[in-house]
């Protein structure tokens, strides 16, 4: 889970002994060290023998509980999908088991926590996979508090009503005032119904999901629980995303020593086969290529970007028509547009470091990370005003420029015209190098790290424990 390994250690600074519970996927089992058994089950949710381990995961600083149940989790590839790209047919039992393990750690059903050495005061579940944990805990009358975080409301964990008897929930909970959702069982809905507090990954997204456009069917429930819902922007891992130490860059740079930024731009242009020149702004994209990322809008704006004298560098993979569209653009303007289809961590760092602008035109974006990295790398984000993009980028208008708070370019409507107008504004501002440098310094000083986010989570926990 993204951000997963960073959040709990950051919480320790607030005196919170946060621990993680994860399913024993093959990669997790391989990383498990110092493991001691805390609980056995001969046939966990029909998945056969299971053991809950307490140990450590290599590279993760906090203690971890790992639910080892080969019948449920020892499967290759994507954790949620089978080989044909379809959901595993037993996903409801696989993630009911995870929620149940959380409840056992919390002392359900008999008041005796699974680990005699440690029990939580509060269980914090992430996304639909953890959605039944608050249900098991609350329905057992446990005093343990619960928090549920939505990372993306589009993934809801819906199952037909026929699975309900397999979940070990009391019959009365199959109700609108319970786990029932559109005639079936909603795992995320259950979490949002039973948890004491709800969070999501930006303030703007917390507002947006209370309306029908972004609410994905849950906006009514979220409006009802509005007072319990807060938005907290995910922290970036500045140990990995730091231009002063990034091995993917030819030279280190920072807000006070920005010279290496030019070297990164030249290296990026060379690597992508574009003319190496400081005299054209480079627009960069690192993204999954899907409709909600709004990259069809960018495809429509490429001609204008080229006409404006800019270069475009794109790294991504996803929908076939978007991949084809960007490859065609690269063939049409080979000296202006360069595209790499696929996933390439090192190149993604060089694009953040070498670009003048990072474009994130998403239709919806719960938090977004690329624009946060871009800020730190002095690549001014050009983003649509939605979700976490709206909360992390300050549009350069006369007021914010005068106030010294501008960090990028923000447009409103999800249209090619609105995106093109923002690209025009960026190209115009780029001509004023002093002003551009000032914006870069402001951007690079912006802080969206885990210490800040953890302070907000700690406040939520204190609120719910009070
Ligand atoms: P989402 O989770 O919706 O894809 P985010 O902006 O929150 O969007 O996170 C995306 C992360 O994945 C970023 O760290 C980004 O750098 C990375 N990423 C996306 N596509 C690629 C790619 N093709 N190659 C390398 N990294 C990628």
Verbal overview:
- The protein has 466 residues and is an alpha/beta fold.
- The protein is 38% helix and 18% strand.
- The protein folds into two domains: 7-235 and 453-465, Rossmann fold; 260-448, 3-Layer(aba) Sandwich (Rossmann fold), CATH 3.40.50.
- The strands form four sheets. It has a six-stranded parallel β-sheet, with helices on both faces.
- The structure holds adenosine-5'-diphosphate (ADP).
- Adenosine-5'-diphosphate (ADP) binds next to β12, β13 and α13.
Fold blueprint:
Elements: H1 7-12, E1 20-23, H2 26-31, E2 32-41, E3 50-57, E4 63-68, H3 70-73, H4 91-105, E5 122-126, H5 132-139, E6 145-150, E7 158-159, E8 180-181, E9 184-186, H6 187-194, E10 197-200, H7 203-208, H8 212-215, H9 219-224, E11 229-231, H10 260-272, E12 282-289, H11 295-307, E13 311-318, H12 320-332, E14 337-341, H13 345-354, E15 357-360, H14 370-376, E16 380-384, H15 387-392, H16 398-403, E17 409-411, H17 416-430, H18 433-445, H19 450-465
Helix pairs in contact: 4-5, 5-6, 10-13, 11-12, 11-17
The structure holds adenosine-5'-diphosphate (ADP).
The hetero compounds bound to this protein are:
adenosine-5'-diphosphate
How much of the sequence lies in strands comes to: 15-25%
Taken from the alpha-carbon principal axes, the silhouette is elongated
CATH architecture annotation name of the largest domain: 3-Layer(aba) Sandwich
Q: Unreliable stretches, pLDDT < 50, 5 or more residues?
A: none
What is the CATH class designation of the largest domain? Alpha Beta
Compute the number of strand runs: 17
Supply the helix-strand structural class. alpha/beta
Number of helices: 19
Estimated helix fraction: 25-40%
As laid out across the biggest beta sheet, the strand order is 14-13-12-15-16-17
CATH superfamily of the largest domain: Glycogen Phosphorylase B
- Our Rg estimate from Cα atoms comes to 24 Å
How many domains?
A: 2
Mean pLDDT, as a whole number?
A: 96
